[in-house]
């Protein structure tokens, strides 16, 4: 079935948030990085400004800048309203309130939109949908990231996650997934099953991170080669 923009909820995060979500060190930031499900994050744009190299993968990159901007405008109020209705599910420390959340997200997505067309032309934003195989050779990257996609959308099922993570591990030496809760802010059997599946052939760890907005969502999953 064709991917449709109407079914997406674009919501972008920035470089500082990525650094905190994934415990990215200066050495990590110098690595060859591929980031899956980036959506309208400004991570790629900010990294590029800093002379770093990131390839972002997402099926929304099929669409034009104008289409994505319109979709962001359409869904922004819906996302903020849902957040307002579930304030108790979030930690309001680094982000103080809804107004600050909106400011941070709009800033990140605006920076993404300004960079988008150039990034597509230079191969930094690639239209691709997991778990399909990418065009990259094995171990083309040092580090693979998944922000607010895998595990969070646990309803995609175990088979989808195994296939998607297997493809990520094919192209990257190490992958990091954040958060490891579902949309209801709970750890599910999916996480347990994924750990059991991959720990046979890989080193699998859960690591605390310096980021918590979704309540209890301050851990990431790390899978790397033995």
Report the sheet with the most strands, covering strand number, pairing sense and barrel closure.
7 strands, mixed
The H/E string reads HHEHEHHEEHEHEE
Proportion of helical residues: 25-40%
> What is the number of domains?
1
* Rg over alpha carbons: 17 Å
- Proportion of beta-strand residues: 15-25%
- Count of individual helical segments: 7
CATH topology descriptor: Rossmann fold
Q: Which oligomerization state do the chains in this entry correspond to?
A: single chain
Protein name: SAM-dependent methyltransferase
Keywords: Methyltransferase, Transferase
GO molecular function: methyltransferase activity
Organism: Cyclobacterium jeungdonense
Quick overview of this protein structure:
This protein has 7 helices and 7 strands, in the order ααβαβααββαβαββ. The radius of gyration is 17 Å and the shape is globular. A 7-stranded mixed sheet has the order 3-2-1-4-5-7-6, with helices on both faces.
Tell me what you see in this structure.
By secondary structure, the chain is of the alpha/beta class. The protein has a single domain, classed as 3-Layer(aba) Sandwich (Rossmann fold). 38% of the residues lie in helices and 17% in strands. The protein contains seven helices and seven strands; from the N terminus they run ααβαβααββαβαββ. The protein has helices at residues 15-21, 26-29, 43-49, 65-84, 98-121, 158-171, 189-198, and strands at residues 33-36, 54-57, 125-126, 141-147, 172-178, 202-208, 219-225. A seven-stranded mixed sheet has the order 3-2-1-4-5-7-6, with helices on both faces. Strand 1 (33-36), helix 3 (43-49) and strand 2 (54-57) form a beta-alpha-beta unit. The longest helix is centred in the middle third of the chain and has 24 residues, at 98-121. The model is unreliable at 1-6 (pLDDT under 50). This is SAM-dependent methyltransferase.
């Amino acid at each position: 079935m064709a991917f449709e923009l109407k079914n997406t909820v674009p919501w972008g995060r920035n470089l500082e948030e990525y650094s905190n979500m994934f415990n990215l060190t200066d050495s990590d930031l110098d690595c060859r990085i591929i980031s899956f499900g980036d959506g309208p994050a400004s991570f790629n744009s900010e990294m590029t400004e800093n002379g770093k190299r990131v390839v972002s993968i997402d099926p929304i990159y099929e669409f034009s800048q104008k289409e994505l901007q319109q979709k962001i405008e359409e869904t922004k109020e819906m996302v903020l309203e849902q957040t307002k209705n579930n304030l108790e599910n979030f930690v309001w420390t680094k982000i103080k309130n809804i107004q600050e959340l909106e400011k941070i997200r709009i800033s990140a997505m605006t920076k993404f939109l300004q960079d988008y067309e150039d990034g597509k032309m230079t191969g930094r934003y690639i239209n691709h949908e997991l778990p399909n195989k990418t065009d990259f050779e094995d171990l083309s990257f040092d580090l693979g990231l998944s922000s607010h996609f895998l595990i969070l959308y646990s309803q995609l099922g175990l088979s989808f996650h195994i296939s998607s993570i297997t493809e990520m591990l094919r192209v990257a030496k190490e992958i990091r997934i954040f958060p490891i809760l579902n949309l209801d802010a709970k750890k599910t059997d999916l996480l347990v099953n994924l750990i059991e599946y991959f720990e046979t052939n890989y080193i699998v760890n859960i690591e605390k991170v310096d980021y918590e907005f979704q309540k209890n969502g301050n851990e990431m999953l790390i899978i790397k080669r033995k």
